[in-house]
């Protein structure tokens, strides 16, 4: 046996076994996914980093599954460089295997900030900006949850169900569903807005939310060519306007 110092404590270590075994014996929970005591170590997952201190030498971050204890070795398992190395390793693994929940659970257990989890949202904020700058509804915002940023609805049911965010979202993660006279806008399993739909006065088809049409009315109220507001779906509106145009052409002839 040799004597080493782990997080300031003197402990006995077996020089024939990888350092990670001594750490485990001391009750220190070092994350590792590729280590198995019956196999030769590979240092592949890179999670079991520790910081090694030697007199008159700069400290080094090393994999505790690879190095073996030697007399007087000084080890720390919780330093800034260790956390940095571990975070980078966890994130790399999550890139390789984004569906592997074991990585996310282990990272959470060890207090590692993994950034935003893969949920098909690339955090471009195009939807947030469009909803604020184009629509003026301000129904979306970025919010930090458990250390990661998510696009979420703002408080106060502000969504008018215009569908702009759905059309602009580059990954298609924001969904629109028209069901039973309601338009539901959602992301992941979170509802952004749920608004009643209006029926077209001509064909009876549901086509836009009442909130959206009220917004359009308020923007066009003082337009000189708008005499009264109708509720026509785009198809009927086009048919009617074509009919009006050809009627006025006939009149001119
Ligand atoms: S559907 Fe709702 S959240 Fe999306 S842009 Fe329109 S108002 Fe904003």
Question: Strands, helices and their partners?
Answer:
Blueprint (H helix, E strand, L loop, with lengths): L1 E5 L2 E5 L5 H7 L23 E5 L6 E4 L10 E3 L3 H17 L4 H9 L16 H10 L4 E6 L2 E6 L10 H5 L5 E6 L2 E6 L2 E10 L6 E4 H11 L13 H19 L1
Parallel strand pairs: 1-5
Antiparallel strand pairs: 1-2, 3-4, 3-5, 6-7, 8-9, 9-10, 10-11
How is this structure best described in words?
- There is one protein chain.
- With 253 residues, the chain is of the alpha+beta class.
- It folds into 2 domains: 2-109, Ubiquitin-like (UB roll), CATH 3.10.20.740; 126-252, no CATH class.
- Helix content is 31%, strand content 24%.
- It has 7 helices and 11 strands.
- The chain has helices spanning 19-25, 80-96, 101-109, 126-135, 164-168, 210-220, 234-252, and strands spanning 2-6, 9-13, 49-53, 60-63, 74-76, 140-145, 148-153, 174-179, 182-187, 190-199, 206-209.
- It has a 5-stranded mixed beta sheet with strand order 2-1-5-3-4, with helices on both faces. A 4-stranded antiparallel beta sheet has the order 8-9-10-11. A two-stranded antiparallel sheet has the order 6-7.
- The chain is rod-shaped and about 105 Å long.
- Bound molecules: iron/sulfur cluster.
- Iron/sulfur cluster binds at residues 130-131, 135, 137, 139-140, 159-165, 185, 192-193.
């Amino acid at each position: 046996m040799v004597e080493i110092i782990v997080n300031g404590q003197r402990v006995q270590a077996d020089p024939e076994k990888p350092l990670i075994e001594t750490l485990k014996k001391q009750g220190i929970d070092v994350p590792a996914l590729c280590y198995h005591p019956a196999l030769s170590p590979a240092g592949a997952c890179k999670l079991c980093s520790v910081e090694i201190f030697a007199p008159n030498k700069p400290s080094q971050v090393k994999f505790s599954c690879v190095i073996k204890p030697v007399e007087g070795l000084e080890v720390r398992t919780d330093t800034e460089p260790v956390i940095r190395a571990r975070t980078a390793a966890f994130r790399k693994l999550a890139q390789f295997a984004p569906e592997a929940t074991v990585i996310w659970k282990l990272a959470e257990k060890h207090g590692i900030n993994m950034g935003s989890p893969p949920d098909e949202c690339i955090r471009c904020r195009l939807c947030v900006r469009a909803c604020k700058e184009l629509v003026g509804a301000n129904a979306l915002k970025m919010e930090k949850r458990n250390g990661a940023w998510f696009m979420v609805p703002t408080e106060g049911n502000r969504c008018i169900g215009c569908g702009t965010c759905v059309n602009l979202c580059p990954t298609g993660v924001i969904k629109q569903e028209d069901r039973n006279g309601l338009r539901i806008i959602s992301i992941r399993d979170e509802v952004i807005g749920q608004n009643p739909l209006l029926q077209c006065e001509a064909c009876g088809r549901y086509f836009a939310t009442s909130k959206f049409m009220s917004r359009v009315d308020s923007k066009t109220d003082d337009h000189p060519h708008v005499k009264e507001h109708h509720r026509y779906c785009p198809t009927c509106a086009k048919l009617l306007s074509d009919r009006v145009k050809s009627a006025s052409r006939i009149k001119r002839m």
